């Protein structure tokens, strides 16, 4: 586990400080580290065959290695910004991998199970909330702006107002047709 934290620190260092036009020694060390992770995943695949892919953590491992390969490969093209974005997303997936490490911890493991159950319950709440959200969005827009043209901007505007209403922004000037300045 300590080595995985060291890997994440090295990856973060490269991502923030050394992702320029030239490839540095630190980046090659990071690449070698990811290659060893790839070799370990290949060893596990050879041992477990198709059963390997039934574990979600193994799929995440493959995803992280593929994203790293794409991000590192893009460095050798003219797409340095795309490389930076892909590697940043890849860093997030590597950090998510910490959950698997914490899952076996006697204190953190049960808490992660509770959080997982909470997200499952939250999903049901969000589905119910979406029913009210969309009904309010469509009906309020239809009343405020009758006979609107069908464009993507209109669809965006239909969803924009109720989304901000969730945070307390009521657009009173727009709704009442007044200027409060």
What would you say this structure looks like, in words?
The protein is mainly α. The chain starts with a helix and ends in a 5-residue tail after the last helix. It folds into 2 domains: 2-104, no CATH class; 112-176, no CATH class. It contains 8 helices and no strands. Helix 6 (108-144) crosses helix 7. The longest helix is centred in the C-terminal third of the chain and has 37 residues, at 108-144.
What order do the helices and strands come in, and which of them pair?
Elements: H1 2-17, H2 25-48, H3 56-74, H4 80-96, H5 98-103, H6 108-144, H7 152-165, H8 172-176
Helix pairs in contact: 1-2, 1-4, 2-3, 3-4, 6-7
Pfam families: Ion_trans (PF00520)
Transmembrane segments: 6-35, 56-76, 82-102, 122-144
Organism: Dreissena polymorpha
The rounded distance between the terminal residues' Cα atoms is 58 Å
Q: Approximately how much helix is present in the residues? A: over 70%
User: Taking Cα atoms only, what radius of gyration do you get, to the nearest Å?
Assistant: 24 Å
Runs in which pLDDT lies below 50 for 5 or more consecutive residues are none
Structural class: mainly alpha
The average pLDDT is 91
Task: Give the beta-strand count.
Answer: 0
- Helix-strand sequence: HHHHHHHH
How many discrete structural domains?
2
Shape: extended
| Helical run tally | 8
Strand content: under 5%
Largest sheet: none
Question: What keyword list fits this structure?
Answer:
mainly alpha, 0% strand, 181 residues, extended
